[in-house]
Amino acid sequence: MNDIPNAQGTALITQVRKTYAELPTSPVRERQSVGIYADWLPLPSSFGDYDQYEGFAQIPGVISWRFKMYLVKEDVPSWFGGTPWVGKFDEISAELPVNTIVEVRLSNSMTNQLGPAILQNTLQACR
After folding, report:
1. What is the pLDDT of residue 28?
2. For the whole model, what pTM was predicted?
3. 3-state DSSP call for residue 99?
4. Residue 2: is its pLDDT beyond 60?
5. By the 8 A CB rule, do 52 and 43 touch?
6. How far apart are CA 64 and CA 102, in angstroms?
7. How confident is the model at residue 119 (pLDDT cuts 50, 70, 90)?
8. How far apart are the C-alpha atoms of 25 and 88, rounded to whole Å?
9. Main-chain dihedrals φ then ψ at residue 24, nearest 5 degrees
10. Three-class SS state of 74
């Protein structure tokens, strides 16, 4: 799927401190968060029976996480086409090694079927 003109994305991997409950005295737990911003994506339906994008992160052969991405409503959309999508998941208790794969994938919300990756990279080159 590398032939999508202008399609680019970035992932933010960060450690977050979250409370177990909304009480001020609740203990804190540390989690990893994966956030994705992807831009210049065509509508998912242009690839077939898909209606959304999902973020997908995996430690190969160990565990994976998937999360819904949301279309960003722009005040002045580009007349060139393409739209931005964002999403995040912040309940990862595992440490994310450099071989962790982060993807933007097509998805069908009615069937819960995950489609192919549109954008993909590992944490190898992260700064």
Report:
1. 81
2. 0.86
3. coil
4. no
5. no
6. 10
7. very high
8. 26
9. -60, -25
10. coil
